[in-house]
Amino acid sequence: SWCQLPLLAFGLCDNNTGGAHQVMERLQEQEQQLRTSSLPAIPNPFPELCSPASSPVLSPGSLPPGEPSSGKYVSKIPETMGHKGNTGGVAPLYVGMYWIQNVFFLIIVKIFSEDGMGKVVEIPANMTARDLCQLLVYKSHCVDDNSWALVEHHPLLGLERCLEDHELVVQVQASMNSDGRFLFRKNYAKYEFFRNPLTFFPEHMVAWCQETNHAILPSQLLQEPRHLQLLADLEDSNIFTVITGKKQHGAPTDYGFCIKPNKSRGDMKELRMLCAEDEQSRSCWMTAFRIFKYGIVLYQNYKIPQQRKTLLSHFSAPVRSVSENSLVAMDFSGRIGRVIDNPVEAQSAAMEEGHAWRKRTQRMNILGSHSPLHHSSLSSVIHIAQLWFHGRITREESHRIVHQQGQVDGLFLLRVSQSNPKAFVLTLCHHQKIKHFQILPCEEDGQGFFSLDDGATKFTDLIQLVEFYQLNRGVLPCKLKHPCTVVAL
Questions:
Q1: Which residues of the chain have pLDDT under 50?
Q2: pLDDT tens digit sequence for 338-391
Q3: CATH of the domain at 397
Q4: 378 burial via Cβ count (<10 Å: 0-12, 13-18, 19+)
Q5: Region of residue 439 (left: phi > 0; alpha: psi -120 to 50; beta: else)
Q6: Which residues does 31 contact at the CB level (< 8 Å), separation at least 6?
Q7: Where is the Ras-associating domain (predicted)?
Q8: Which of 163, 177, 246, 443 is most buried per CB count within 10 Å?
Q9: Is residue 468 part of a domain?
């Protein structure tokens, strides 16, 4: 059964009994026993350092005990082995043990991209979702803008969620069903609520809490508090987006989400299905559940990339040389050159030079220059390699991509128009609503252009059009900020 949630109003309580810590300690003990019992017998290069002293083979029982919390082998050096600080032949033995441990704890994980292609990677057991995303960004030669995410996807259940940056990938994989998989994609909305909180928590949904000095009365939660029931324990569950709500689960709206226990193995009865009236309400609820579950850890995840950027800013910032600082604008239109002292005149001269260069380039292409492509053919294919261009996809497919990558203001993509093969369509997200703008070809003085405002503003190619609207809103509701990117692994 579905529970429809029109507004956000719930109380928070702390019921942490410490059971999770006991479970973790038990798992670590079992892991340590499995670690020592699964090690094969290998030749011992230092038999005099082990017990018995004459043992030529290093057996699992002769390994020093490890600390479950640190995951590294720790052993005390006998006092009979020389003076303080002298390790002698001990260091190679411990290095060998550490090497053996790392080899046996590499985990194989398969990651899928949006096109369905998979890539197998080997990761250590303590690798987080953020670290794996950084690894995939490096291997795929992507731009690292801290918006990549690892998605837990369950196609049979119609559920998916974005992993938090601090989550261990191996632990998440161990709790997944056989049909579950990891997806590597953009998610611009992962920390958007820290940048624009009013978008996720609108005033009409939180104003009543502020009026009561942050105190929620029982009467405001429910008319009869005895009917309150425990919905789920978020410590052992995660929040998922329902991507096939109406079709698969019979949801009353398209804005469904659910609470799925980690121990659930695909049983629909264990899912707690919820739905909201619109996308903003669903985002509000899911964000509130994330904050309730992880608390300050989410804000720390959000600040880590910014702190790294601050530390590297003075290393990556370009340093201007003395010759660059001494550059001045010059005018060579007369018999002799002169320095342009007026900054307004200098900027105007630079713009005129840019327009003159573009006209010369166009004229050379028309007359047949060294360019391998004619200008008209070049402008029709130059955008194909751009990340924001998605080719011949349907309107519904463009909606799906924008939904998956966050639905933040300025999220956009370009595609070929279905109604006019010579035209293109700009798909833009604004206020969590998706809008489409047709880009039509036009001609002036025998030269082809593109325009989305009926010829008022013309561009020679789509790259120039996108760059213009990234700087100027024009007729659009907002500037183009975040390109929808699909990367093949």
A1: 6-20, 23, 39, 51-104, 316-325, 365-375
A2: 777 777 777 777 777 666 655 555 555 444 444 443 445 556 677 888 889 999
A3: 3.30.505.10
A4: middle
A5: beta
A6: 68
A7: 105-189
A8: 163
A9: yes
How many other CB atoms are found less than 10 A from the CB of residue 229? 5
Cα separations in angstroms, 305 against 102, 128, 136, 161, 481? 28, 14, 16, 21, 19
- pTM of the predicted protein model: 0.63
* CA angle (171, 173, 174) in 5-degree steps: 65
Strand ranges in 387-471 using DSSP code E only, listed in sequence order: 411-416, 424-430, 433-444, 447-451
Give residue for tokens 């739905």: 275
CA 121 to chain centre: 18
Domain that holds residue 401: 386-483
Specify if 331 maps to a domain: no
Tally the domains of the chain: 1
Helices (H) and strands (E) in the chain, counts: 15, 18
Whether the Cβ atoms of residue 488 and residue 115 lie closer than 8 Å to each other: yes
In a domain, 172, yes or no: no
Give residue 297's pLDDT: 93
Supply the pLDDT for residue 311: 64
pLDDT (0 to 100) of residue 443: 84
Scanning the structure block, which residue is given the tokens 């429809």? 4
Residue owning tokens 């910014």: 306
The string over 274-308, giving b where at least 16 C-beta atoms fall within 10 Å of a residue's C-beta and e elsewhere, is bbbeebbbbbbbbbbbbbeebeeebeebbeebeee
Calculated CA dihedral for residues 116, 122, 126, 127, nearest 10 degrees: -50
Question: pLDDT per residue over 253-295, tens digit each?
Answer: 889 999 998 887 777 788 888 988 888 888 888 998 999 899 9
391: tokens are: 């080719």
Single-letter code of the amino acid located at 352: E
